[in-house]
Amino acid sequence: MDNPQPEPHDLLGVGIGPFNLSLAALADQVSGLDALFCEAREEFRWHPGMLVDGARMQVPFLADLVSLVDPTNPWSFLNYLREQDRLFPFYFAERFQLPRREYDHYCRWAAERLVNCRFGAAVTALHWSAEQELFRAEVRGLGEVWARNVVLGVGTEPVHPEPFAALRGHPAVFHSAEYLGRRDSLAGARDITVLGSGQSGAEVFLDLLRTRGGDGTRLRWLTRARALAPMEYSKLGLEHFTPDYTRYFHGLPGEVRDHLVEAQWQLHKAASAETLAEIHDHLYERTIGRPLDADPVEIIPGTAVVEALAGPCGGFELGCRHTDSGTERVVRTDAVVLATGYRAVRPAVLDPIAELIDWDEQGRFRVDLDHRVAAGFGGGLYVQNAELHTHGVGTPDLGLGAHRAATILNAVTGRTVHRLPTRTAWTGFAPVTTGTPAAPLTLPRPQEGHRATAVTH
Predict the structure, then answer these.
(1) Chain centroid to CA 252: how far?
(2) Burial 123-160 (b: 16+ CB within 10 A, else e)
(3) How many CB atoms lie within 10 A of CB 448?
(4) pLDDT over 60 at 30, yes or no
(5) 285 — phi, psi (to 5°)?
(6) Which of 42, 43, 38 is nearest to 20 (CA)?
(7) Could you give the CA distance from residue 265 to residue 240 in angstroms, rounded to a whole number?
(8) pLDDT value, residue 435
(9) What are 81-111's pLDDT values in tens digits?
(10) What is the chain's mean pLDDT, rounded?
(11) What is the pLDDT of residue 213?
């Protein structure tokens, strides 16, 4: 007699990073919801290569797994502090931003206790049964798992720039995602180059200044960005990380959205002003009593690495081009840390149903406001942190994680599990359409040889 098919789960989460962990924590409190979250790794890990001493989060502690949706939830950071007997120490620390190591420990605390999370359970393939209108997942260690809805939270992967393709796998060239585990391998290097101007690049460069600054090692920081500008952190500027802006962004044409993501790099790719200040303070103090040009440190913005080769006598030769002047030169270095960011990838688990998914012209998911992927099947396939092109710069931001998880839960259950605010920003991002339409402007044509001037209001 055949074994009967097990009862399908209402929700299957593929991957357990902070965003699916947020969904698991909120789902844990929903009565009658059967949810299961599977992760290939044996335990929760959050950017272990960047948990350097002194590194802090770029978001306030309220951007935890649940608080911005449900501050009474037992999986909140404040309840974690209570369980750790750290409420008074945290109170006296008076820091809104957490150490990275503490955020990682908080997430592991939740992941180890949530009964709907399974580690060491890799989802290897996802199928769609049109007959039963269910997803069928192949899960290592669990066999077949059936579900009505699936949420992909597989995260992003490190970006290795094309000029470094020939050096991929070289022990002295690695991504910042591996930094802490590979830092000791830099002990013999007398010239180290950090590539990338974001928070990871700044933190790696600062850590190298602290740990290698006194041994004569030349430290170099290269970046394509024309300036080491700080992350936008003004109060009104941060309103780009609200559901209001997400809704506005989602309604724009695709080509406009793509342009905005690139143009808004200072909202989501820059380093914090505090980290940049620490770098400057460290450089200032180490050069007391000696000229600046005697310090073996180079900070070179506006410079792209166009070629990277192994040197004939060891080390590497980086072909560099200065963006503004077009000047080219070769930089010789012993090691390179690539702080070159992360990108969303199409997970292989989707291969069996790839033809049923509606991809855009660039092979990316088409995602609706509920974070559901457009597809030719009845079940709900949702994504987390794979919709930068449709939902904007707040996509990878932890501050929107709980709101997105609650939005998905409301969609999956078909009811208001969590009441979400209708307005979250003072800024009105869309043009006001009420009232009498303005007459079109008629501008004089500029005379030949003269430049047109902008009209400002």
Answers:
(1) 22
(2) beebebeeeeebbbbbbeeeeebbbbbbbbbbbbebeb
(3) 5
(4) yes
(5) -70, -35
(6) 38
(7) 12
(8) 60
(9) 999 999 999 999 999 999 999 999 999 999 9
(10) 92
(11) 76
